[in-house]
Design brief:
Blueprint: E1 3-6, H1 14-29, E2 33-37, H2 56-63, H3 71-74, H4 83-102, H5 107-117, E3 121-126, H6 132-135, E4 163-165, E5 168-175, E6 181-183, H7 186-193, H8 201-212, E7 223-227, H9 237-249, E8 254-258, H10 265-279, E9 297-302, E10 316-319, H11 322-336, H12 338-351, H13 353-356, H14 364-370, H15 395-400, H16 402-411, H17 424-434, H18 440-443, H19 500-508
Helix pairs in contact: 1-11, 2-4, 4-7, 11-12, 12-19
The structure holds zinc ion (ZN).
Zinc ion binds at residues 175, 177-178, 180, 200, 202-203, 221.
């Protein structure tokens, strides 16, 4: 039985409201949540619907007026057989990348990060190639950092990967000959925009070495965007398969599917397998308020309903935008389990020890016990300014720290969120010091993949998501939606303002 809960009805209908509230509480209580996402979660970031015939297609058309193409042709591996379609592809993806670079992750990306920060995220799987998850601090499978050594052939550090990129990453390039992978640089962009392709440095190096010893010359490969096309194996197919298998055996207690119409074969298979694993965690005889009542739910959040094929698999269809739903969940989670957010205060404060005081080693013990997933950066130089608040402390910084913001919120909710969204440059600045995954330089080292296995084959951009266009939610209207802790770890934490309890935790180390 699938229950439909329309977010639009919540205000007027008490039973919908109650059911949504129960669902939020279930999110708050579950500990091993699997999240599966599609294009719908990036809509509010203004990522153009690149499958439609306007927008980017029109731009490409300007440059290649004589080329007749259909969306599918642009993403089929066979495009490389023809030099014109290859050129169009390069231009198109370069333009898409420019749009993505200019955009910002949205509330749903931050929500997934919050689940991870609260130790509730078993794994995120996405069809999206925009890399927004990495920008909010979730290590992606395509990332260069996700590899045990920087090189393409090295092993994927599956334990550290938080976001599995089913269709690759638009911010990486890969050699068509030797599969060497690189970050997508501005130089690459300039070349791709013209429809050309840069030469592979790895191949070039080898060719030169051969030339110096007068060996037979080899072909120098060209670089291409490291996204997965139709009928193309995923470069990391085997590794992704292993991650999925491992996650299935770890008894996930909730599955949240957001912003995808679930029409791609490989994704359907993945969702069905996780749904089965999740349902096996549901209590045999559910008792309202019972110990395990929250476990075993499969939630689908999308503006349009799933097809009938999903009845018996999806338990709840939350009708609406993903941003709206995650805003509601966070709000209700805070209202019903405030303690979860107080724990986070301590956690954030200790994590921030290395941030605001530049003295990570002093906090090693606390940081490692309180936050297993986060690494204390041992390489940072410790210095002696601990307990001295940063000089540049300003009002909006105070407001921007979750711990203080929460404290402030208790006294005056109006000042809770006075801060405007960070500009990209500011965000990058603050990020770079604190979260290794989201630092811009590292983020650009996000890497590609090699070899999609059967189920994952031909997934790319599969089904058009219907959750596009207009957003109902003003991002900065709802205080809870804007909870800064959703982007918390990257902000400096003013020690002076910490609640006493937190301060003493900091001192312990
Ligand atoms: Zn190469």
């Amino acid at each position: 039985m699938m229950t439909t809960l329309a977010l639009a009805d919540a205000a007027s209908d008490a039973s919908t409201r109650r059911a949504l509230n129960d669902l939020s509480l279930a999110v708050a209580k579950c500990k091993k949540i699997v999240v599966v996402t599609g294009a719908g979660i990036s809509c509010s970031s203004g990522i153009p619907d690149f499958r439609s015939s306007d927008g980017l297609y029109a731009l490409v058309k300007e440059k290649y007026p004589d080329v007749v193409l259909k969306g599918r042709d642009l993403f089929d591996a066979s495009l490389f057989r023809d030099s014109t379609s290859t050129a169009v592809f390069h231009t198109f993806i370069a333009q898409l990348k420019q749009s993505i670079d200019a955009a910002e992750p949205g509330p749903t990306h931050r929500f997934i990060h919050t689940l991870d920060a609260k130790k509730k995220l078993l794994r995120s799987y996405t069809q999206n190639i925009d890399g927004f998850e990495a920008r909010v601090g979730l290590l992606g499978s395509a990332s260069g950092e996700a590899r045990s050594s920087g090189k393409g052939k090295s092993k994927l550090r599956t334990k550290d990967v938080k976001n599995v990129q089913l269709h690759g990453d638009i911010h990486r390039v890969r050699c068509r000959s030797c599969s060497a992978e690189y970050p997508y640089t501005p130089e690459h962009l300039a070349i791709f925009l013209e429809g050309d392709a840069p030469e592979c440095p790895e191949c070039l190096g080898r060719a030169e070495a051969r030339a110096t010893r007068c060996a037979r010359p080899i072909k120098v490969g060209t670089l291409r965007p490291a996204i997965v096309l139709y009928d193309e194996p995923h470069p990391l197919g085997d590794e992704i398969g292993l991650i999925e298998t491992a996650d299935l055996t770890r008894k996930p207690d909730m599955l949240i599917i957001m912003g995808t119409s679930l029409k791609v074969h490989g994704l359907k298979k993945l969702v069905k397998e996780f749904a089965k694993a999740v349902h096996s965690q549901a209590p045999d005889t559910p008792v309202k308020g019972g110990k395990k009542a929250h476990m075993g739910k499969v939630v689908f959040v999308n503006r349009t309903p799933p097809s009938s094929e999903w009845s018996g698999i999806i338990d709840y269809h939350v009708e609406g935008t993903t941003d709206e739903w995650v805003g509601r969940v966070i709000k209700e989670w805070k209202a019903q389990r405030p303690a979860d957010w107080e724990v986070q205060k301590t956690l954030v404060a200790t994590e921030s020890g290395d941030v605001s005081m530049s003295s990570p080693l002093n906090f090693k013990v606390v940081a490692t016990t309180k936050s297993k997933g986060k690494k204390v950066e041992p390489k940072k130089k410790p210095h002696n300014e601990e307990n001295v608040p940063p000089v540049h402390e300003s009002t909006d910084m105070v407001l921007s720290t979750p711990d203080v913001a929460t404290a402030l919120a208790k006294s005056s909710s109006t000042t809770y969120f006075t801060q405007p969204p960070l500009s990209p440059s500011k965000r990058r600045q603050t990020n770079s010091h604190y979260t290794p995954e989201s630092s811009p330089s590292k983020r650009r080292t996000m890497s590609p993949m090699k070899g999609l296995e059967d189920g994952a084959r031909g997934l790319l951009f599969g089904a058009p998501s219907k959750t596009s266009s207009s957003m109902d939610l003003d991002l900065f209207e709802d205080n809870d939606m804007n909870d800064l802790s959703m982007r918390s770890p990257e902000k400096p934490k003013p020690i002076v303002k910490l609640p006493r309890r937190v301060r003493s935790t900091v001192r312990v180390a």
